[in-house]
Amino acid sequence: MQSINRMIWGPTPQEKVRKWQTQLKREQRMLDREVHSLDLACNKVKADIKRLAQKGDTKNAKLLAREVVRTNRQKQRMLTSKAQLNSINMQLGHQLAMVKVTGTLQASTEIMKASNSLIKLPQLSNTMREMSAEMMKAGIMTEMLDDTMETLDEEDEELEDEAQAEVDKVLYQITDGKLGQVDAAKVGELPQKQATGPTPEELERDEEMERAIQGLLSS
Q1: Three-state helix/strand/coil letters over 124-136
Q2: In this predicted model, what pLDDT tens digit does every residue of 138-178 receive, in sequence order?
Q3: Are 107 and 137 in contact (CB under 8 A)?
Q4: Rounded distance, CA 44 to CA 85, Å?
């Protein structure tokens, strides 16, 4: 009888929810593997930066430091997405409890917001679009936004415009203070001449790095 009802009416609300929960757990495991791969790759780059610092190759060390910054941002994005997947999973568990009372799935603003946010991540985009379409049919979501995709070009522009301080911080940490600068938030306000002096910030940073390298080579 149950199989006949499924053929006529399709999966039950409970079956739909369990299917989505299985998909969400699979995507969480995929993100875990991605994060692990990023950690391994980042550790290799950090080792390369240390070797370049010892050789006095500031230019290439800074280039690799930018890759560390990019990797850290990507990792943070994945960890945030994993937390959002878990949030959807918990909300679906609440839906299962409500089905026993009402017999139907209920609209959920939390699930809709989290799903629309997850569509931005390339690794999850296809899965979340398909799942969102199914949830719309089931009545859990009332709409699915189509204008939430982020472009890598915008991220690259942001990196070029704002990430220099992060790059210097990464260099400072990885090379034990031989390259880069301490984050201003950790040591108080920057010296006045850095903020008002006629020398451009980037040039001043490069000069300090060169002096650090010379001291490293002579030691």
Answers
A1: HHHHHHHHHHHHH
A2: 999 887 655 444 444 455 555 555 567 767 777 788 887 77
A3: no
A4: 29
